[in-house]
Amino acid sequence: MDEHTDGGxxxxxxxxxxxxxxVGRDAELARVLRAxxxxxxxxxxxxxxxxxxxxxxxxxxxxxxxxAAGTRVLRAEGSEPEKGLPFAALHQLLRPSAAEWDGLExxxxxxxxxxxxxxxxxxxxxxxxxxxxxxxxxxLSALGGxxxxxVVVDDAQWCDRASLEVLSFVAxxxxxxxxxxxxxxxxxxxLPVLGPRAAALTLGPLDAAASDRLLDLRPxxxxxxxxxxxxxxxxxxxxxxxxxxxxxxxxxxxxxxxLPLAAHLERIHAAPLGALPAAARxxxxxxxxxxxxxxxxxxxxxxxxxxxxxxxxxxxxxxVRRTGGGPRFGHPLLRSAVxxxxxxxxxxxAHLALAGLLGEEPDRRAWHLAAATALPDAAVSAxxxxxxxxxxxxxxxxxxxxxxxxxxxxxxxxxxxxxxxVAAAEEAVLTGDLARVEDLAAAVRARTDDPSLLADTxxxxxxxxALTVRHSVVFARLADAAEELCLVRPDTALDLLADAVxxxxxxxxxxQRRRIEDLLRRLPEDPSxxxxxxxxxxxxxxxxxxxxxxxxxxxxxxxxxxxPDRLAALGVxxxxxxxxxxxxxxxxxxxxxxxxxxxLPDGLGGAAAWSYVDQGRWERARQAVARSAALAAATxxxxxxxxxxxxxxxxxxxxxxxxxxRARAAEALALVDPLESRSVTVYARxxxxxxxxxxxxxxxxxxxxxxxxxxxxxxxxxxxxxPALAELAAAAARSGRRAEAAVxxxxxxxxxxxxxxxxxxxxxxxxxxxxAGAEDAAEAHFRxxxxxxxxxxxxxxxxxxxxxxxxxLRRRRRIAEARAPLGEALETFRRLGARPWAxxxxxxxxxxxxxxxxxxxxxxxxxxxxxxxxxxxxxxGLTNREIGEKLFLSPRTVGSHLYRSFPKLGITARSQxxxxxxxxxxxxxxxx
Length: 928
Known about the structure:
By secondary structure, this protein is mainly alpha-helical. It has 45 helices and seven strands.
């Protein structure tokens, strides 16, 4: 097999019951298994792929499955040393059946030809390949007559020519035979034509999601910048992913050049270098020293610098391919082998040559100069520092952090190096890579004892540590550091408290609230710190002084617009105070300003998603957490991953996809300790309760929702629990547990007191209406729950209240009064895509004899929620790129959605969208 190490299993995960999983190859595996069935729709199938793409693994799966289907397997494997031996591959294929030949109905001359092949004797000149082909075809047909036959040939590019010609002869004549042939070969190698019935299946690189899954299957799964480098260098090749993950270390992640290989793989891949002229080896080393961040024109410059004869020799050796963009290595592992097989002096010369070629790209020139520098060098360090801006624009915060770290390593002055390391940590924080930030912090501590720099570093580590699941430990570390700095460095102490209060929200422990309030009292008053001090108070306990906090919210919003880096924090505070419209506006503006740089760099970024959930923008909510979840998964920030899963679970439950909702909620709960991460635990349990309610399983829903309150009826989490009161009451009212639920509702209502928001007061009123025994009291509570116009900002909750009230009215035969709330609830459920609730509203309308209450379907109703949002943004005149930046989609994906939407909308041009959307928005509601 051509996958040198674990090659046949390069795309295979860990052993499970039955066959091991093949990562990212579901479609290809299905195609191979269909072809392996006898009779087969593809009696001859050729698998094509670069080394390490999983060809051998797919063949092995077909071979292992064959006996269960009653199919016999004959197999051969090409071998480069045997490529010149005639019939070497046929010898492997035929030898296992030789003892049976005398019992088969074969012509005598056919047996002689087969025995000549097996004995490596020359086949008669008048027969040659034709005679061997006829004999093998007759043999396979006879064997297939006893049971179906599968012929498997791996590494066909290394089979001898005579065997391939015979097998090609056979392959073109398999019509009607109980025989299937599977071949695997590299795509660049020429094989004899297998005939018109031969189908080809090309294995490309794994996509990003499959590459991530393959790395996650490793017991020591890489994270952070090491993971990013492995993914970039492997380019989706399963073998490269596996081998680089096995051998690369965190220290290697910051080194120049590609990641190294294990010694034996380096020897295998570098072996062809010895036969090349020195000029070819130098050119290949320069090509290997190029980084993905270098200009796309750089390979062409290297090509021109070396000359055609040099690259022809390298191409003939199978090391490179020449394309329109310049030379490229034929396999990701070749680059590593070429680079690390060279001594440092040769690598230094290569980097200096590349620095000369990249003179118009100062950040890349500086990087290659640094790679060529082994000792501290103030000039190179300064040049690297000057190019941080271009590096950030080209490669994001990770590239900027890398440049600053390397500049620190080359700085002769220790204080200057420590300053650069802190700057690198500031950039690294925005990548979400906690391990990277902690490594940089350790380097700062090793370089300096400057209390200012050490305090800044501690704050940076705390900012990301809040997103792990070690909340109690992290909180104590942050609070202790803040306490030490309260008087000597109050600004840094307040920054540390801002991180600590995020942990307080996640963990939800009351002792943490008291510690933060105590530390805030110790901090000296200073108007310059009022904004952040107020924010910490709001996150710590949003309902204790809600009226006072609302009074300063307009000032905080104005300040945030002058300091856009505070917009997301403003959104967090507004969301916690149930000022959802302001929260959504702040988050929208924050996303717009942050643009394509990645997920919002705030510890409570999940608040954006919950704001969108509250406002009924469910697809937007899932998009808001999708990118941050991917980043968090790659960097080991399990709490952020679990938060995203909980958001997904809630939206899926509301939409009626209950199985998926339960799966996502289970993922969220599996990642956290319920005592350490009360917020996510409560959200996930609420999502499970929502799934039960969507299915009408009220007893299960009550049991789930009851767990978000303590045995005494107090909220498990000071902010996340109380919005579940109405759902708890809805489940209790339909499962005979009104009295128990009433205790919880009243206990929480007393705890909220005057600090309750209009939203929470409405939810408490709805809960009381559902649980009330007296009819007059129930009606009063329902009307109170619907009275405040501000409740329109929580459309799903408002629609649920309207539906509950309409059901209450219908049961009392007040049909006419039920019509309006029922119609409004149905319209909202349909608009949001809340399928189970829309169906429940329709059933209620049918029970009341109120047919025809559905709104006339508008054109947008035929689109998915995401397509609807894309269409609305396009109607406002936004370009595909602008829409993509808002929704975290590529412009191509946006264009694809619009292309598929136009026929459903009955339009042919983008210019028609505005009129169509306006007509949809003003279409009347049809009433009976």
